Amino acid sequence: PELRSMLRQYLTREGFDVAESVNGNDALATISRSEPDLVLLDVGLPDIDGFEVLRRLRSASDIPVIMLTARDDEIDRVVGLSVGADDYVVKPFSPRELVARIQAVLRRGAGGIRATTTTLRFAGLTIDETSREVHLSSELVTLSALEFDLLVALAQRPNRVFTRDQLLERVW
After folding, report:
1. In 3-state terms, the chain is what percent helix, strand and coil (to 5)?
2. What's the alpha-carbon Rg for the chain, to the nearest Å?
3. Which of 21, 29, 39, 50 is the least crowded, having the fewest Cβ atoms under 10 Å away?
4. pLDDT tens series, the chain, 172 aa
Protein backbone atom coordinates (compact mmCIF):
# COMPACT_ATOMS: atom_id res chain seq x y z
CA PRO A 1 0.00 0.00 0.00
CA GLU A 2 2.81 2.45 0.81
CA LEU A 3 4.52 1.86 -2.53
CA ARG A 4 1.21 2.24 -4.42
CA SER A 5 0.50 5.49 -2.59
CA MET A 6 3.98 6.89 -3.26
CA LEU A 7 3.81 5.91 -6.95
CA ARG A 8 0.30 7.36 -7.35
CA GLN A 9 1.42 10.69 -5.86
CA TYR A 10 4.61 10.86 -7.90
CA LEU A 11 3.05 9.79 -11.21
CA THR A 12 0.09 12.13 -10.73
CA ARG A 13 2.50 14.99 -10.08
CA GLU A 14 4.26 14.06 -13.32
CA GLY A 15 0.98 14.38 -15.27
CA PHE A 16 -0.17 10.76 -15.47
CA ASP A 17 -3.70 9.61 -14.73
CA VAL A 18 -3.38 6.73 -12.29
CA ALA A 19 -5.75 3.87 -11.47
CA GLU A 20 -4.64 1.31 -8.92
CA SER A 21 -5.55 -2.18 -7.83
CA VAL A 22 -4.82 -4.13 -4.63
CA ASN A 23 -4.44 -7.59 -6.18
CA GLY A 24 -4.07 -9.42 -9.49
CA ASN A 25 -7.74 -10.19 -10.12
CA ASP A 26 -8.71 -6.60 -9.37
CA ALA A 27 -5.92 -5.44 -11.70
CA LEU A 28 -7.25 -7.56 -14.58
CA ALA A 29 -10.76 -6.18 -14.03
CA THR A 30 -9.50 -2.59 -13.81
CA ILE A 31 -7.41 -2.99 -16.97
CA SER A 32 -10.34 -4.38 -18.95
CA ARG A 33 -12.61 -1.55 -17.76
CA SER A 34 -10.29 1.41 -18.15
CA GLU A 35 -7.99 0.31 -21.00
CA PRO A 36 -4.89 2.13 -19.70
CA ASP A 37 -1.94 3.14 -21.86
CA LEU A 38 0.51 1.25 -19.65
CA VAL A 39 0.49 -1.09 -16.65
CA LEU A 40 2.94 -1.11 -13.74
CA LEU A 41 2.69 -4.62 -12.36
CA ASP A 42 4.23 -5.89 -9.14
CA VAL A 43 5.30 -9.52 -9.16
CA GLY A 44 4.39 -10.06 -5.50
CA LEU A 45 0.60 -9.73 -5.40
CA PRO A 46 -1.55 -11.20 -2.61
CA ASP A 47 -3.82 -13.44 -4.71
CA ILE A 48 -2.05 -14.41 -7.94
CA ASP A 49 1.50 -13.42 -8.79
CA GLY A 50 2.32 -10.75 -11.35
CA PHE A 51 3.68 -13.30 -13.81
CA GLU A 52 0.26 -15.00 -13.96
CA VAL A 53 -1.49 -11.63 -14.29
CA LEU A 54 0.87 -10.83 -17.18
CA ARG A 55 0.17 -14.21 -18.85
CA ARG A 56 -3.60 -13.59 -18.65
CA LEU A 57 -3.19 -10.02 -19.82
CA ARG A 58 -1.06 -11.07 -22.80
CA SER A 59 -3.71 -13.56 -23.91
CA ALA A 60 -6.02 -10.63 -24.61
CA SER A 61 -3.92 -7.48 -24.97
CA ASP A 62 -0.64 -5.99 -26.15
CA ILE A 63 -0.77 -3.18 -23.58
CA PRO A 64 2.72 -2.16 -22.44
CA VAL A 65 3.67 -3.62 -19.03
CA ILE A 66 6.52 -2.70 -16.73
CA MET A 67 7.14 -5.27 -14.00
CA LEU A 68 8.11 -4.04 -10.53
CA THR A 69 9.68 -6.52 -8.16
CA ALA A 70 11.99 -7.07 -5.25
CA ARG A 71 13.26 -10.20 -7.03
CA ASP A 72 16.54 -9.35 -8.71
CA ASP A 73 17.55 -12.83 -9.84
CA GLU A 74 18.37 -13.11 -13.53
CA ILE A 75 15.84 -15.94 -13.95
CA ASP A 76 13.00 -13.73 -12.65
CA ARG A 77 13.91 -10.97 -15.10
CA VAL A 78 14.12 -13.49 -17.94
CA VAL A 79 10.73 -15.00 -17.02
CA GLY A 80 9.11 -11.55 -16.80
CA LEU A 81 10.48 -10.46 -20.15
CA SER A 82 9.73 -13.78 -21.85
CA VAL A 83 6.14 -13.79 -20.60
CA GLY A 84 5.72 -10.40 -22.25
CA ALA A 85 6.87 -7.56 -19.99
CA ASP A 86 8.21 -4.52 -21.85
CA ASP A 87 10.57 -3.61 -19.01
CA TYR A 88 11.55 -4.95 -15.60
CA VAL A 89 12.40 -2.68 -12.65
CA VAL A 90 13.90 -4.04 -9.44
CA LYS A 91 13.06 -2.48 -6.06
CA PRO A 92 14.29 -0.25 -4.63
CA PHE A 93 14.16 2.10 -7.60
CA SER A 94 14.23 5.82 -8.23
CA PRO A 95 10.82 7.30 -9.09
CA ARG A 96 12.55 9.54 -11.64
CA GLU A 97 14.07 6.50 -13.33
CA LEU A 98 10.69 4.77 -13.34
CA VAL A 99 9.09 7.80 -15.03
CA ALA A 100 11.88 7.79 -17.63
CA ARG A 101 11.27 4.07 -18.26
CA ILE A 102 7.50 4.67 -18.55
CA GLN A 103 8.09 7.44 -21.07
CA ALA A 104 10.53 5.27 -23.03
CA VAL A 105 8.04 2.39 -23.23
CA LEU A 106 5.26 4.74 -24.29
CA ARG A 107 7.53 6.34 -26.91
CA ARG A 108 8.30 2.94 -28.38
CA GLY A 109 4.60 2.67 -29.06
CA ALA A 110 4.24 -0.91 -27.85
CA GLY A 111 0.98 -2.33 -29.23
CA GLY A 112 -2.35 -1.29 -27.90
CA ILE A 113 -1.44 2.27 -27.04
CA ARG A 114 -4.13 4.76 -27.78
CA ALA A 115 -3.89 8.48 -27.38
CA THR A 116 -5.45 9.62 -24.12
CA THR A 117 -5.95 13.13 -25.44
CA THR A 118 -6.01 13.58 -29.18
CA THR A 119 -6.91 17.26 -29.43
CA LEU A 120 -6.12 20.14 -27.11
CA ARG A 121 -8.08 23.34 -27.59
CA PHE A 122 -7.39 26.85 -26.35
CA ALA A 123 -8.71 30.23 -27.49
CA GLY A 124 -7.89 30.20 -31.20
CA LEU A 125 -5.36 27.38 -30.84
CA THR A 126 -5.94 23.71 -31.70
CA ILE A 127 -3.30 21.04 -31.14
CA ASP A 128 -4.06 17.68 -32.75
CA GLU A 129 -1.76 15.11 -31.15
CA THR A 130 -2.74 12.32 -33.53
CA SER A 131 -1.92 14.18 -36.74
CA ARG A 132 0.72 16.33 -34.99
CA GLU A 133 -0.80 19.49 -36.44
CA VAL A 134 -1.26 22.88 -34.80
CA HIS A 135 -3.78 25.44 -36.01
CA LEU A 136 -3.85 29.05 -34.85
CA SER A 137 -7.03 30.87 -35.88
CA SER A 138 -7.66 28.06 -38.40
CA GLU A 139 -4.24 28.49 -40.02
CA LEU A 140 -1.75 25.63 -39.98
CA VAL A 141 1.35 26.40 -37.92
CA THR A 142 4.59 24.73 -39.03
CA LEU A 143 6.59 23.34 -36.11
CA SER A 144 9.56 21.04 -35.83
CA ALA A 145 8.99 17.74 -34.03
CA LEU A 146 10.73 19.07 -30.94
CA GLU A 147 8.72 22.30 -30.96
CA PHE A 148 5.51 20.31 -31.29
CA ASP A 149 6.44 18.01 -28.38
CA LEU A 150 7.34 21.00 -26.21
CA LEU A 151 4.06 22.73 -27.05
CA VAL A 152 2.08 19.58 -26.19
CA ALA A 153 3.95 19.16 -22.89
CA LEU A 154 3.09 22.73 -21.92
CA ALA A 155 -0.49 22.57 -23.22
CA GLN A 156 -1.25 19.35 -21.34
CA ARG A 157 -0.57 21.15 -18.05
CA PRO A 158 -1.78 24.74 -18.55
CA ASN A 159 -0.98 27.34 -15.89
CA ARG A 160 1.87 25.21 -14.53
CA VAL A 161 5.44 26.42 -14.33
CA PHE A 162 8.09 23.88 -15.32
CA THR A 163 11.76 23.95 -14.53
CA ARG A 164 14.25 23.45 -17.32
CA ASP A 165 15.03 19.97 -15.98
CA GLN A 166 11.34 19.02 -15.93
CA LEU A 167 10.96 20.09 -19.55
CA LEU A 168 14.09 18.21 -20.55
CA GLU A 169 12.73 15.09 -18.87
CA ARG A 170 9.22 15.42 -20.35
CA VAL A 171 10.22 16.32 -23.90
CA TRP A 172 13.74 15.13 -24.59
Report:
1. 45, 15, 40
2. 18
3. 29
4. 888 899 999 999 888 889 999 999 999 999 888 888 899 999 989 999 899 999 999 888 888 999 998 877 888 788 888 888 999 999 888 888 999 999 888 888 644 434 445 788 888 999 988 888 999 998 999 998 889 889 988 888 888 888 888 888 777 7
DSSP state of 47: S
Q: Does residue 143 contact residue 135 with C-beta atoms inside 8 Å?
A: no
The DSSP string of 61-92 is ----EEEEES---HHHHHHHHHHT-SEEEESS
Whether the CB-CB separation of 39 and 65 falls below 8 Å is answered with yes
Which residue pairs from 113-116 have beta carbons closer than 8 angstroms and sit at least 24 positions apart in sequence? 113/37, 113/38, 113/63, 113/64, 114/35, 114/37, 116/17, 116/37
pTM of the predicted model, to two decimals? 0.62
Alpha-carbon 53 to chain mean position: 18
Task: Report helix, strand or coil for 119.
Answer: strand
